[in-house]
Amino acid sequence: MIDNEQHVLVVFPHPDDEAFGVSGTITSYIKQGTPVTYACLTLGEMGRNLGMPPFATRESLPSIRKKELKKAAEVMGIEDLRMMGLRDKTLEFEDDADMKQLVADLVDELKPSLVISFYPGYAVHPDHEATARAVVEALGEIEPDIRPTLHAVAFANNTEEDLGKPDVIHDIRHVQEDKLNAMRAHISQTARMLEMLEEGIERDDPEALKWVHYENFYTYKWGDES
């Protein structure tokens, strides 16, 4: 059981970002009756992988990834999936004010008590970082007493050195298969990872089991909070 929320807004740039990092958490919230909105900023149309063996082309990949995203949302139980229409691998070049407004509009509409996204500076990919900046800038303009909590995913090599251990750890063992199914939905991108993960689970490999047993977050600390 994880803490109940009024509404959870998940903001990531690519289809499959949610599957790898937070699909167990999303599924847990939904199974508890918490509404979840997933705003996926792009269709991941510039993804490196075309399937294993390849079944997509550069031309067909956007439509394939759109279908995969819808399937993953269905697996997790998400009824409110927003495809925001930005272009993969270009978010760092978007106007920061426009990106911030995109997030602010979602927050104004949905009034979430919790937002889940990446942690700025520790999200590795330029699209991840641009998304994290937009989320932090949008939420940072909200009065502290009504500001949603931000649970941020961080996975840069220096994350624990700089931020310490994650302060939010969700036990997702009860939805392990749901997480795997969310990853399977994105099969054009996840085939090799799934193969390695499933082999590791069969061997009771601790590193593999961590992926499907726990999801970790950092609660973002705001400068205007005591």
Class inferred from helices and paired strands: alpha/beta
What level of helicity do the residues show? 40-55%
* Gap from first CA to last CA: 28 Å
Order of helices and strands: EHHEHEHEHEHEHHHE
What is the averaged pLDDT score?
94
Number of helices: 9
Q: Note the overall shape.
A: globular
Strand content: 15-25%
Query: Numbering strands along the chain, what is their spatial order in the largest sheet?
Result: 3-2-1-4-5-7-6
Major beta sheet, specifics? Answer: 7 strands, mixed
Detail the poorly predicted runs. none
Whole-number radius of gyration? 17 Å
List the SSEs and their pairings.
Elements: E1 8-12, H1 17-21, H2 23-31, E2 36-42, H3 61-76, E3 80-86, H4 96-110, E4 114-118, H5 126-140, E5 149-153, H6 159-163, E6 168-171, H7 176-185, H8 187-202, H9 206-213, E7 214-219
Parallel strand pairs: 1-2, 1-4, 2-3, 4-5
Antiparallel strand pairs: 5-7, 6-7
Helix pairs in contact: 3-7, 4-5, 7-8, 8-9
What does this structure look like?
- The protein has 226 residues and is of the alpha/beta class.
- A seven-stranded mixed beta sheet has the order 3-2-1-4-5-7-6, with helices on both faces.
- The two termini are 28 Å apart.
- The longest helix is centred in the N-terminal third of the chain and has 16 residues, at 61-76.
- Strand 2 (36-42), helix 3 and strand 3 form a beta-alpha-beta unit.
- Helices cover 44% and strands 17% of the residues.
